[in-house]
Amino acid sequence: AQTIHQWPVAEIKAVGSPLSLGCTIKGKSSPNLYWYWQATGGTLQQLFYSITVGQVESVVQLNLSASRPKDDQFILSTEKLLLSHSGFYLCAWGSLDTSNSDYTFGSGTRLLVI
Amino acid sequence: SQWGEENLQALSIQEGEDVTMNCSYKTYTTVVQWYRQKSGKGPAQLILIRSNEREKRSGRLRATLDTSSQSSSLSITGTLATDTAVYFCATEPGGYKVVFGSGTRLLVSP
Q1: What's the domain count of chain A?
Q2: Which domains does chain B possess?
Q3: Which residues does chain B have within 8 Å of residue A105's beta carbon, measured at their own beta carbons?
Q4: How far, in Å, CA of B50 to CA of B54, rounded?
Q5: Cis peptide leading into B110, omega within 30 of 0?
Q6: pLDDT digit string (tens) for B5-38?
Q7: Looking at the complex, does the CB of residue B101 fall below 8 Å from at least one CB of chain A?
């Protein structure tokens, strides 16, 4: 069975400090990987997607970057946090089989920027 | 109904009642997905309906899709208190992008 693990579970960080969030998928080879951001009480906004190692596409610009150093790992980062970065960050994987859109989300990282 | 630019909608019902949530979308999509998100958790996919399907059922869930009006609905029959969650629709306009609606907050009281 596929599992998706996000770390850390929660973070409190200062404005201007760096951030690195991680996501690991086990049990699925060459998954499509996604990062989403959700404001408290809001909808999910897709940030990045990656269909292969070393290749990441940005969907929206929020002063964040993403990398995929390994097939099963997806990293979200920034060098300088803003207050507006607070929220819930979710990693997801999707099937490569385009006949079956199957997305599975991780349990998320809650970030508070102060 | 929900879409990204609208505020989160809220519904409050009693356990055992049936409920229908609506979603309208603005761009072409090949599928509409419905998700349930419980407090503090990631969303879980409930049902996926394709553009060539008008209706799809899964247990107590029923999704409909009307591509001519670009709208979809999710119905839950015989709701339970455990159905309390936020429900999102999501579309795929292409290029690995997924666009979520604004969501409907459903509260089912025992």
Answers
A1: 1
A2: 9-105 (2.60.40.10)
A3: 42-44
A4: 8
A5: no
A6: 344 689 999 999 999 999 999 888 889 999 999 9
A7: yes
